[in-house]
Structure formats: structure tokens, C-alpha cells
Amino acid sequence: MPLGRAYSVAVTGVDGQLIEIEADVGQGLPSVHLVGLPDTALQESRDRVRAAVTNSGEKWPDGRVILALSPATLPKVGSVYDLALAVAVLDAAGLVPAERLARTVLLGELALDGRVRRVRGILPAVIAARDAGCATAVVPCSVLAEAGLVDGITVLGADTLRTVIAWLRGEGALVEPDGQLPEVVPSGGDLSEVAGQEEARWALEIAAAGGHHLLLTGPPGIGKTMLAQRLPGLLPPLTESESLEVTAIHSMAGVLSGDQPLITAPPFVAPHHSTSAAAMIGGGSGSARPGAVSRAHRGVLFLDECAEISTHILEALRTPLEEGEVRIARRDGVARYPARFQLVMAANPCPCAPARDVDCICAPLARRRYLGKLSGPLMDRIDIWVRMHGQSSAISAESAESSAVVRARVAVARAAAVARWHEYGWTTNAEVPGHILRQRFRLPHATIAPIETALRLGRMSARGADRAIRVAWTIADLRGADLPTCQDVLSAMNFRQRGVQ
């Protein structure tokens, strides 16, 4: 009984698993049966694969074709298996040699005329294939640059099923990646374009240096969005491992640009205030896709008009903020996406949002209710609160520091934090657990006396105290000091008491 075999990859979250595809051609009425928990898109691949094979000049077997995807208990989602299904059938029919198929994964959707189309999640799929010991990965040419980012595996690109068949027969070659990446063009504007707002600029620098979360409140048009958009320009570029991690998430989301296959700069994600919970946290029908919090991994998540966002969506941010991960439960398992981002929120002080507080026409209850969506547990996870005010006079932007100058200070402060926490594996002050700050790196009693007083009087929670200490460490790093002083602690506490007034 003829039996063919090929390999593909199933991706759940950003983790992939090797899938063995077996094709059996037996006696019986001509038909195609697909087993192994396929979803609707994969069930429809039976017709796509048959049309692609015949339109590529090959003969579809006469008889009963059974296609099995193993492990059978793992749900299979999407059209990434099309190319492997077609090759497995040709192998079972004896039309292609099996030598190259033993350590090769085939990824791609097939058009009816045999063209190989791009699919989501190519980068994590190729990484999973490499980790499973595969030597070669064949992918669509349109995502060849993305797949070529993975070291330790030979990546080849194919435009059509016909070229893949010729390569398996040793009659032709597939496209190899050129290894060249486009030059990264900085975006987001320069900090020198923001006039005035010295306190908010200082808060932004602290947030960049320590990886802290930030809340900006103030009347419309005062510069909250401009400041938030310039935060990524103050952050250091991503490391090689971080770039692959972030790129894999964007590949799964289907938003990776073909012109820029590798993300090397911290991403900036700004969802609209009317966004849904699935778009913010992740989910959707079928396979769970990453949401805005995961696409902002290693970068900035900016929530403009955060007081207009639904309360249940804001509360859903609490777990990612604390754990740096999103777990999306489905009937067939749990998809995990990393979500370690810097949160920047901006809000008007009240619904009418006048340029001056004295012009406000809102009732006191309406003002309290407007920012009341920002619950105490959520606000407790925000490190820095800043209330921005209008400028009393026009200030020339020429006197403001540029992003390059501030970025240099941020780099020095981050280097100090890395040197201090290197033994524990942390890179920023915001990542340090509270018990480490209180035990192994406990500050002198005179330094943290203001925090202890606030705790005793009930003005600050234990979590808030830990976050104030983290900010104090960052302020000390920006000053070039070895330890925070009492003044640094007071400055950090001041940033936690001025945002929502």
C-alpha cells in the first residue's frame, strides 16, 4: 500500500510543534479524507490541494486518499499545511523521491493554480522546526526574508508547487535569502519638538530609564500624545533575541511588514479607545491571535483617552502588567503570548476638558466618575503620575533637549541597572521583585522613612511602596549615584500623588 510522508508545523501562541503528515493511497472510489482534528480552513484544503497538483502538471492519484496529521490530539488550524499535504500525496503516489522530505518542513498555502501563498506565523514555525532538528524549511518567497532570520536551519523560498516538485526531484533550485535587511528609519518624532512641560519630560525620561508605567492627565492639546509618541525614541534598540521574540509575535498577528521583516526598535502600539477586549488582550475565533498588549511587547502600549475605555478592558490589563504574559484559554488548550510592555495612559481631567480648570462646567460627581474608571488596583500598578498644565508663555522648542541627548542619559542609567541586577537576570528597575528590594537591597531606614510613614498612615499600599522604591532607584541611576537618597524617595512618592487630582 503506497504511503507518503511530509512535515509541517502547528503554531499555538508563539510556540510551534512539528506535525507529521501521512498520505495513504488505497483502493476505492476517488475521494480525499482528512483526519487529525482539522478546522474548517484545513478541511477545505482538500479541494485546494487537488486543484493545485493537477494545475501544476501532475496526476492526482486515482483511488481513496487518506491524509492524517499527527499528533492526532492537537487541533490543526489554518492553511499552512497545504504545501506539505500536496507533497505527501505526491510522495505516496511515487511521483517525487522521499530523500529530501525526511528532514524538511513545508510551510505555505496553495492557490488553485499552484502558487504558494504567505501565511501567518512563519517565523515561530521555522524556529520550532529548527528546534525539532529539521535541516531545511521551504516557505513562500514572500516571507523568505522573515524566515531567513532564523539561524541553524537552511531556509528556501518557493513561488509555486511546480518549483518545489522540481527541487525534490533534483531538477531545479529554490530561492535562498540574501541576508540583507532594510535600514531602520526612526519614527515618532523628536523630543525637542515638545515645547515646555519640563516635569512631564523629566517623568518621561525616568520612565524610559527604568521601564516604568506612566499616566499623563491634562487638558486636550497640551502635549500628552506627543510625549507618549516620543518614548520609543528614548529606549535602547532591541537585542537580537528580543528582536526575534517581538517579530515572532507580529508574525502571528499577521501585521509584519514585508519591507521590514525584522523589528529592531521598540514597538509603539496605540489602540483606539473603542477597541474590544479580544483586540486588546488577544483572542478571536479559532486560534487565539495576539492582542495589542502582546504586539507592544518590549515596547510601549499607549492608551489615549483611557477614561473612555471600557472598565472591564482596563481591568484586564492588571494581569499582563504584573506577570508580563497573556494566557488565552480555549477549549483545546491555552495560548501564551509574552506581554512585557511599558504602559502609557493619557486622559483629560473631566468630560468637558476645558483649557483651564476654572472654565470647567462638570459637576463634582461627574469629574470623580470620569476618572473613576481607573480603579485603585490598576492605578496602584502605575509608577508615575503627572498632571500637565498649560504654559504661561510661549517657549521656543530650540531650547528643549533632543531625543538623542536624553537617550544617552537613559542608556547610562540602564547600563547601571543592568550591572546591578545582572546576577539575577533583570535588565530594568521595573522588573525587580519587591522582596528583593526590601531584603537584599534594603535601603537605610532614614532613606525610606517617608514610605514607612505613608504605609503606617494608610496612604500607600505595599505594592505602591515597592513601585516608589523602584522609581527612586531609577532617579539615582540618572544622577549617577550608587544608592537612592531620601530626596529621591520623596520625588518618587511625589510622582505617585499628583496624577489624578
From TrEMBL:
Q: Which domain of life is it from?
A: Bacteria
One Pfam family name is Mg_chelatase_C
Write one Gene Ontology MF term.
ATP binding
Q: Which UniProt keywords apply?
A: ATP-binding, Nucleotide-binding
Positions of the AAA+ ATPase domain: 210-375
Keyword presence, Cell division: no
Q: Which InterPro entries match?
A: AAA+_ATPase (IPR003593), CHLI-like (IPR045006), Mg_chelat-rel (IPR004482), Mg_chelat-rel_C (IPR025158), Mg_chelatse_chII-like_cat_dom (IPR000523), P-loop_NTPase (IPR027417), Ribosomal_Su5_D2-typ_SF (IPR020568), Ribsml_uS5_D2-typ_fold_subgr (IPR014721)
Concerning Gene3D superfamilies, the annotation shows: 3.30.230.10, P-loop containing nucleotide triphosphate hydrolases
Q: Which NCBIfam families does the entry mention?
A: YifB family Mg chelatase-like AAA ATPase
- What's the family? Belongs to the Mg-chelatase subunits D/I family. ComM subfamily.
Q: What is this protein called?
A: ATP-binding protein
Give the source species. Answer: Nocardia panacis
